[in-house]
Design goal:
With 318 residues, the chain is α/β, with parallel strands linked by helices. It contains 13 helices and ten strands. The protein has two domains: 49 residues, Arc Repressor Mutant, subunit A, CATH 1.10.10; 253 residues, Rossmann fold. 42% of the residues lie in helices and 16% in strands. The strands form two sheets. A seven-stranded parallel β-sheet has the order 1-10-9-5-2-3-4, with helices on both faces. The radius of gyration is 22 Å and the shape is globular. The N and C termini lie far apart (66 Å). The relative contact order is 0.13.
């Protein structure tokens, strides 16, 4: 008698075959049933199972006119190299729906290149969701480097670190940064960054061909404060100095200037370069992120953007 796990595996295998026949090969349900040797009802259930178990992932290839229009306007207003705007869902002020899929598709354009690339990554919820949408592939020709530390204040691994996840998906050499985002002191940061492996990672980060980063806000529920890297009082203090956002821990004001503060003096992440000649994608959306995105755009900390309709409209109103 087959074990439960074996039966479950076989069921998912059948669902994957049914999903491929229906969505990829273009068979109707009668044809799927005939090719699998099952009833039409069973074929229908297997196709539905392929969707519910997320064995099939969809990407919308048809350019939606409104999104294209917003993309062009954003490129013109902020002198962007690339801009992709995805359709809104029912909760556009807070949702990131659709953005991970577009980000994954964009990454894959570089990953499919035979020419070796150095791809740099920040961290965050949206980028982590993006990695989950990537197609599995073998990319030994590329190198993936983290721009930001992957150690939480208590010594545990950061829950939003993406470098290990992407390396497992695309089978590429990867370079995590075994540091806290913000060191306890300037002296500690210097000692950590002076280690030979860290110097090598920072040098690699300086040679990247394309970069993908999230953008954190510096108001209520700021990621740096939520994750324990700065205190509530430190957050209030740096906000009083004009802080609106952060990228890989570097805190900036509404013009995109890195604020001169003791917090930024302790940031252990790779430096961010304004007005880079290489592509630097900000992957971000949401009402509470608007000021942070504006600062990053105006300071040219990013030169490309992946966002949604709501966020694009708000940025164009500013």
């Amino acid at each position: 008698m087959a074990k439960k796990n074996d039966r479950e595996t076989n069921r998912l295998d059948d669902a994957a075959r049914a999903g491929w026949l229906y969505y990829v090969a273009g068979n109707n349900q009668d044809e799927v049933a005939a090719k699998l040797g099952v009833s039409r009802q069973t074929a229908q259930r297997l196709v539905s199972l392929a969707i519910s178990e997320k064995l099939i992932k969809f990407r919308l290839d048809h350019p939606i006119a409104r999104c294209m229009e917003l993309s062009v306007k954003l490129k013109d207003k902020f002198d962007l190299k690339k801009c992709k705007v995805v359709p809104d869902d029912l909760n556009p002020e807070t949702s990131i729906q659709g953005i991970p899929e577009v980000c994954a598709s964009t990454m894959e354009q570089f990953l499919k290149s035979d020419e070796p690339k150095i791809i740099a990554l920040g961290t965050g919820r949206v980028l982590r969701a993006c990695i989950e949408q990537l197609t599995r592939m073998d990319c030994p020709q590329h190198r993936i480097v983290s721009l930001v530390g992957n150690i939480a204040p208590d010594g545990s691994a950061s829950s939003y670190d993406v470098i290990i996840r992407i390396a497992d998906t695309i089978k590429a050499p990867h370079y995590p940064m075994p540091l806290p985002v913000i060191a306890a002191s300037i002296e500690e940061r210097k000692v950590l960054q002076d280690q030979k492996p860290i110097r090598n990672i920072l040098q690699l980060a300086d040679q990247t061909d394309v970069t993908f980063v999230g953008i954190g806000h510096m108001c209520k529920d700021a990621p740096l404060e939520q994750d324990g890297f700065i205190t509530r009082n430190e957050l209030k203090s740096i906000v009083s100095q004009g802080a609106v956002g952060e990228i890989v821990g570097w805190i900036f004001d509404k013009k995109g200037n890195i604020i001169k503060d003791s917090i930024n003096e302790r940031v252990a992440s790779a430096p961010i370069k304004p007005d880079s000649e290489k592509l630097v994608f900000g992957v971000v959306a949401g009402k509470h992120k608007i000021n942070a995105i504006l600062g990053a755009l105006q300071g040219k900390l990013i030169n490309s953007l992946i966002t949604n309709e709501y966020t694009a409209e708000q940025l164009l109103k500013k």
